[in-house]
Amino acid sequence: MSRFEDTLTVGVPVRVAYDQWTQFEDFPKFMEGVKTVEQIDDQTLRWTADVAGKTKTWTADITDQTPDERIAWKSIEGADNAGAVLFEPAGSNETRVTLRIEAEPEGAVESAGDALGFLERRVKGDLERFKEYVEGTGGDGHGWRGEIHGDQVQPDARESSHALTDDSSRTSS
Predict the structure, then answer these.
(1) Which structural domains are found in the chain, ordered by start?
(2) In the chain, how many H helices and how many E strands?
(3) For each successive 10 residues of the chain (173 residues), what is the average pLDDT?
(4) Residues in a beta bridge with 6
(5) CB 56: neighbour CB atoms within 10 A?
């Protein structure tokens, strides 16, 4: 399995960078080759991407998610990969973002591409495009603030309070 890591600093506060990263369905806007990311539930994502000229799909589970600190995942079906993105304050309006990826190349073309550093350059480019994207948009403030630790999913407290409000308004009508 190949491992890659890259770090860069983005010119937004940690909360903005983290919240934008939790908008998984926006990944095609800044990740090269990613066609779609469908969020199945709080923990599960279905990806479709072009890898070495082939369309690949896989399903990944988020294994650890701590607001403003870390999101980690592992594929559970399809292309074998895992990784984590870490967020660290680098000043009042800056965030150090570190992306770590482990991927298993499949077949001769992917193995050759791996040997030539294509995936490593793609990861670096994705981080640079994320920087441009989040600095350009300033984030939308709609990040998911729940937590995931293994199989334990604690929903975003804002969602829980909305659900309670929605339930109470339905019962009082």
Answers:
(1) 2-172 (3.30.530.20)
(2) 4, 9
(3) 88 96 95 94 94 86 97 93 96 94 62 50 89 90 87 80 42 37
(4) 99
(5) 17
